[in-house]
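User: I'm new to structure prediction. If I give you an amino acid sequence, what do you actually give back? Let's try with this one:
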Amino acid sequence: MPPPDLRIVDIHAVLPHESSDIQRSGPLIARLQEAEFFTNPPLVAPAGDGKFVLMDGSNRHASLKALGFPHILVQVVAYNSGLVELGLWQHIVADWDAQSLRRELENLPGIGISDCQDAAAIASFDLRDGDCFGIRAPADSLRERNAALRAVVEAYHSRATLYRSPLTDAKQLWTLFPTGVALVTFPIYQPQEIIAAALDHAYLPPGVSRHIIQGRALNLRYPMQRLRVDQPLQSKNRQLAGWLQAQFAQRAARYYAEATYQFDE
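Assistant: Good question. You get back a string of structure tokens that encode the predicted 3D arrangement of the chain. For your 265 residues, that looks like this:
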């Protein structure tokens, strides 16, 4: 496993491919404002012309931008590196009722309700009571599909509690999320669609794409002041390189090949 490619880059050169999640970024801004260390760098893919597409960490990126940081520490991983697996998160809609959820969806302009087996559906809903339905909307282009999906997610995101899960077994999810009323699943995306969404500002809803990265760098504890300070990028990256060398020399960086659960975020 190669060591992580960690860089400090211009924060405006990092382009999100999804809308930020206000339920998560609001509290995160407050935490980062007081934080002494930056622990988990966002994951980005090269997009050409010195730009990078955010694969994971959009709320950390949005929070640092809101706080006026000029630069951000990221981990760079190319889609074709063999280290990236692109999947999906499922949404669990909680702390609401299924009737109100369906009514909000039916009132969305250009949105139609279809049956559970609709292969053209842009999203599918499985309800706790066993009912299910699909969502039909204009989706002739990536921009249209993502705009429709943003409207669908916003219909419940602003009114309910939204959880994300990689699990697809509804019965298991109802046990884990006792106030959940609906499981929402989405269409598969390809890497080129993620890049296009970022470059064309055709954003996905928050928390839909799921990037699994082999060799992900976590719990760095890199000093926040080194990101805040007004210095050229070249100087900041020299400092970062020295800091990384010291971490490996002190055996403070360890690689774990096992899949893990983390309970600290």
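You can read the tokens as a compact description of the fold. Here is one thing that stands out. The mean pLDDT is 91.
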